[in-house]
Specification:
218 residues, TIM Barrel, 8 helices, alpha/beta, binds zinc ion, 8-stranded parallel beta sheet, binds D-xylitol-5-phosphate
Amino acid sequence: MKKILIAPSILSADFSDLQKDISMIENAGADWLHIDVMDGHFVPNITIGPLVIKNIRKHSKLFFDVHLMITNPEKYWENFQDAGADAIVFHQEVLCNKQKLITDIKSAGLKAGISIKPNTPVETILPLLPFIDIVLIMTVEPGFGGQSFMDEVLPKITTLRKIMDNDKYNFLIEVDGGINLDTAKKCFSAGADVLVSGNYIFLSDNPVKVLQELKSIN
Ligand code: DX5
Ligand code: ZN
């Protein structure tokens, strides 16, 4: 049976001691580490850049899933490669040559991902699907952790799963925003492969237990 991958989002971790929180979730069986990069332009919030990623890279062997919520991914992605990213996920809504960007990222030996905001239809990324490694479906408006899951986005997961199965594409479907045990089950049933979770894990009384519960959904 298909196993779900869980990618805790460090946006909700303790930024005064990232090493402690990352070790905790790594030891508890996290599959990926989701790292939210925001530029205050593509989204109304500013988070971290390559310098922080480079430093946490020294302390973790996790797969670094770098979610670029920035306006110019083509200009900056190599800085994130140098910092130790394993996957570079950028947004469909930015203006750049996405086909070239995917090729460049993959040629560098990294996984390439495309993300769509809640109001962006799956149809807009159809031409990219044969080339992409990850599709990241946003189930909140990007910019902040701790928002409520938008149920109306669920059909996009089902649609993508159908397209992948019919056309024999080979990307992972990742879902980001408002994931808790209840919404995780809905996403898994709809066909998700990877679930990002921030507040639900890091703000709980027992992050290790919560992570293990998420990992065991089926
Ligand atoms: C939002 C970010 C998410 C966020 C998820 O723009 O892309 O990764 O950290 O946090 P929760 O799980 O709290 O919604
Ligand atoms: Zn994210």
